[in-house]
Amino acid sequence: MTAETSETPTRRSDVTRAAILDAARRRFARDGFHKATIRAIAADAGIDPSMVMRYYGNKEGLFTAALDIDLGLPDLGLVDPGSFGEVLVRRFLAIWETPPSNEVLMTLLRTVVTDESMVERVLQLFATQAMPMVLRAGDPADAPHRAGLVVSQILGLALCRYVLRIPSVVALTHDELVADIAPTLQRYLTMRPGR
User: Fold this and answer.
1) C-alpha 109: how far from its chain's center?
2) Looking at residue 191, what DSSP letter applies?
3) Which residue has the higher pLDDT, 31 or 170?
4) Where in the sequence is the domain holding 35, given as residue range(s)?
5) What span, in angstroms and rounded, lies between the C-alpha atoms of 54 and 113?
6) Mean pLDDT on 164-190
7) What CA–CA distance (Å, rounded) separates 134 from 131?
8) Which end of the chain, N or C, is less packed with Cβ atoms under 10 Å?
9) What CATH number is associated with residue 13?
């Protein structure tokens, strides 16, 4: 057996897994966890439903895998302190408007308001990815307070622009959003304890 033939099943397996995850992210973002079905996800991926079960066990396992995301938040220790807010708004827009992160975040946002079990997943994402970023921007003692304010602003914008699709918010260009939102985030990121 050559190296090429021994790698083929692994490559096929990786391609199949990726197709399932892509289909699941789109379906969960569109239909939510409860309405999405394994059969519909498999059809979207162009495979038999048994393959979904083989790789992910059940819908919950697939949902967990589909929501695994690295937000790629900026290391604010490497950014000019005067541009923290702008850098963060631009990164936010990129992850909310580029697959697959936009599908994952849409699913999280829609699901967390109706499924209590998803709250822990969002809090974990907050603790492991947002907090380290905020810690680099100012006083560590006040980081939870500042991070909470940053996330409230970002999630509010996401809800209005991508879920509710409020026309005046959807119509804003990236540069307009940076001009409007970045100063608020800048203040949250750099404020001192005791305000």
Assistant:
1) 9
2) P
3) 170
4) 3-66
5) 30
6) 96
7) 5
8) N
9) 1.10.10.60
